[in-house]
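just leaving the lab so this will be short. what follows is a protein written twice so to speak, once as letters and once as structure tokens for the fold. can you read through it and tell me how you think this chain folds. thanks a lot i owe you, the record is right below.

___
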Amino acid sequence: MKTLSKLTFIAVLSVFFSCKQNPAETPEHKAMVEEHKEMEASHEAMATEHNTMKDDHQQMVDAHKAIENDSIHLVIEKNHLVLLAKHSELIAAHKALIEKHAELETKHASGEFTLEQMTAEHESMKTEHANMEKEHQGIAAEHKRITEEDKKLIKEDQEKATEEENSEKK
């Protein structure tokens, strides 16, 4: 009878543990992993755009070297530098969010976080990510506005210089 009780106990334990699903295999976890990949792709796009903004800034500075004592262009450069710094901070915060998200994946896969904990934390991170993407879009729009304004002013300066040259020739 003791042997039968032990065998029954072992069988019940085996069934219990074999039926327990690996947290990493749940549909919710797999969806979170896919969303993490999307976050990483979004981050790469932000970082690439940031590099483009830095290149644009250098081109702006180089173009301004030909303009003498033009305080308007200096103000534009300053505004652009402030925007670059803000964007850099955003990218750093987004990278930290991605790292935190990866940690969440690991903790859920290991069973350290329950499905409910993972879901709640993930929803919070999704909201934070969406806010960061919105902020990035605002910065990108401001960058475009500053760049277009600067190009317009440079064109006006060039036209003015051409007019002055033509009037001196007459």
User: Anything to note?
Assistant: Residues 15-19 have pLDDT under 50 and may be disordered. The helical segments are 2-19, 27-64, 71-109, 115-169. DSSP finds four helices and no strands in the chain.
